[in-house]
Specification:
Blueprint lengths: L25 E4 L2 E4 L18 E6 L4 E6 L3 E2 L5 E2 L15 H33 L1
Antiparallel strand pairs: 1-2, 3-4, 5-6
């Protein structure tokens, strides 16, 4: 019909004619379908080893399991390793407060020592002339 908007290509509109809609409490793993009650946690059964670098948590409001990733990992299944940079909050750089404090302290001590040596050199040159 003219003036009618084309349907969006979301998951809900992709179903073939005659196919049944999957119930909300049914989880599909591979080619298997398992039905669980709304109070059961699929993280202990069908999604036990789902998260690669993290742990599975079931969100009852969304009625689906999600992965909570370990530090340095991201993605739906925590399979993406994030690169560490010196300016971020990663564990490899000099961005920790204790590392920055020790770096500043070292630079201050070196500046003081060089200043004292310079003062002694100037005094020695003055004393040698007279």
């Amino acid at each position: 019909q003219p003036g009618r908007k084309p349907e969006s290509h979301s998951r809900r509109t992709r179903r073939k004619h005659g196919s049944k809609k999957r119930p909300r409490n049914q989880v599909t793993v591979g080619h298997q379908s398992r039905t669980h009650s709304p109070t059961s946690n699929p993280c202990f059964s069908s999604h036990k080893d789902y998260c690669i670098h993290g742990h599975c948590t079931y969100l009852q409001d969304l009625e689906e399991p999600v992965c909570v990733c370990m530090k340095g990992y991201d993605g739906v299944r925590c399979g993406v390793h994030l690169l560490q940079t010196g300016s971020g909050s990663g564990s490899g750089g000099l961005d920790k407060p204790s590392s920055m404090d020790s770096l500043h302290m070292t630079l201050i001590i070196m500046a003081v020592i060089l200043s004292v040596i310079s003062c002694f050199a100037i005094l020695l040159m003055i004393c040698v002339q007279y």
